[in-house]
């Protein structure tokens, strides 16, 4: 079990990825995102997750630069957006991302959504960028089991990561089992279900028992289930609190209780239906 904010899981290609990081979805480009990234790094975070569609890659790059932490100690993720899927378009999108971040390479690059019929071409572009040494690890986001099976059937390189909506109301049991079997690291976005889980009475009871917040209990549950997690916050106090989860462990019984909250309920779109940006 990870013991600190810098602890890592080893992806199937040997690259080490922090168990815990900062997500910057909906963090505003400019001063806000620059400060958030700097603050998180200052408090020990080493993993930052952005995406082309968040429109804040420049600020993320600026925050990284101003943090003063050596590049090789950080793990930076971005994602190719739906409208840039396809081989050539993905190569161009990657160049744009790298230029905005002002980095020489990415640690992880993901296909943001599966969409319908282009992800295999997109994946070929990711494989090329990976072989060229421009990305240390490649993966996908929001892929269901059938997407992964389809992709792997023609891929030279298996995805190292699958980042999906994951929280106590959406425990992704089938997907988690499949990813474990295939040695694909599962990663959680929206681990707190955009705050909706914070009022859950059962989670509040458990939190009291450990003298922790509900958010801390959920984030700890992620890690104990072997899932990398990247909560987002713009408040320094919450950035610090979210990461204060390495000094306690949920009991097997409490893990079971939280597992029992699953109702396969999403807050985000269903990947089989989400086609925004694919037109």
Automatic annotation (TrEMBL):
Cite the binding residues for substrate.
112
**Gene3D superfamilies the record matches:** NADP-dependent oxidoreductase domain
Task: Site (Lowers pKa of active site Tyr): give the residues.
Answer: 79
Write the record's keywords in alphabetical order, separated by commas: NADP, Oxidoreductase
Q: Which PROSITE patterns match?
A: ALDOKETO_REDUCTASE_1, ALDOKETO_REDUCTASE_2, ALDOKETO_REDUCTASE_3
NADP-dependent oxidoreductase domain residues = 31-262
InterPro entries noted in UniProt: AKR, AKR5G, Aldo/ket_reductase_CS, NAD(P)_OxRdtase_dom_sf, NADP_OxRdtase_dom
- What does UniProt list as catalytic? 54 (proton donor)
Does NADP appear among the keywords?
yes
- Which residues span the membrane? none
What's a single GO MF annotation on this record?
A: oxidoreductase activity, acting on the CH-OH group of donors, NAD or NADP as acceptor
* Annotated family: Belongs to the aldo/keto reductase family.
Could you identify this protein by its name? Oxidoreductase
Which organism is the protein's source?
Halalkalibacter hemicellulosilyticusJCM 9152
Q: What is the lineage of its organism?
A: Bacteria, Bacillati, Bacillota, Bacilli, Bacillales
């Amino acid at each position: 079990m990870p013991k600190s904010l810098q602890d890592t899981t080893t992806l199937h290609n040997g690259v080490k990825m922090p168990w815990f990081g900062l997500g910057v979805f909906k963090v505003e480009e400019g001063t806000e995102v620059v400060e958030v990234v700097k603050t998180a790094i200052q408090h020990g975070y080493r993993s930052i997750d952005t995406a082309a569609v968040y429109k804040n890659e420049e600020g993320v790059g600026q925050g990284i630069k101003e943090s003063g932490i050596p590049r090789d100690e950080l793990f930076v993720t971005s994602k190719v957006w739906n409208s840039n899927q396809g081989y050539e378009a993905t190569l161009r999108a990657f160049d744009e991302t790298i230029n905005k971040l002002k980095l020489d390479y990415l640690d992880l690059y993901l296909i943001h959504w599966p969409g319908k019929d282009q992800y295999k071409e997109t994946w070929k572009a990711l494989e090329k960028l990976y072989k060229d040494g421009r990305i240390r690890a490649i993966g996908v986001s929001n892929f269901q089991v059938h997407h992964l099976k389809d992709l792997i059937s023609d891929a030279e390189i298996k995805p190292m990561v699958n980042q999906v909506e994951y929280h106590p109301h959406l425990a992704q049991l089938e997907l988690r089992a499949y990813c474990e079997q295939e040695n694909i690291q599962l990663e959680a976005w929206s681990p707190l279900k955009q705050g909706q889980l914070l009022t859950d009475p059962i989670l509040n009871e458990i939190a009291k028992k450990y003298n922790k917040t509900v958010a801390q209990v959920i984030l700890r549950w992620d890690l104990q289930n072997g899932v990398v997690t990247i909560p987002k916050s713009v408040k320094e106090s919450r950035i610090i609190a979210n990461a204060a989860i390495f000094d306690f462990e949920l009991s097997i019984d409490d893990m079971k209780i939280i597992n029992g909250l699953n109702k396969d309920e999403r807050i985000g779109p269903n990947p089989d239906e989400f086609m925004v940006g694919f037109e």
